[in-house]
Design goal:
By secondary structure, the protein is an all-alpha fold. 28% of the residues lie in helices and 0% in strands. The longest helix has 16 residues. 0% of the residues are buried.
């Protein structure tokens, strides 16, 4: 099988940042969004519905 000619080098186009042009930062989030919590609750309820209740409980 032929290998395609792909340049896998880390040429000069890779930017590592510098004091005059720093890399972008990741923005911290205080906590999960309301939408994420709602979806997690729905998923948890679906998961719990998969269990059978034992007789007598």
């Amino acid at each position: 099988m032929a290998t395609p000619n792909v340049d896998r080098s880390c040429g000069s186009d890779v930017s590592l940042g510098s004091p005059d042009k720093p890399l972008p930062r990741v923005r911290a989030v205080d906590g999960p969004s309301v939408d994420l919590l709602d979806r997690a609750l729905i998923g948890w309820e679906r998961f719990l519905d998969t269990f059978e209740v034992a007789s007598g409980e």
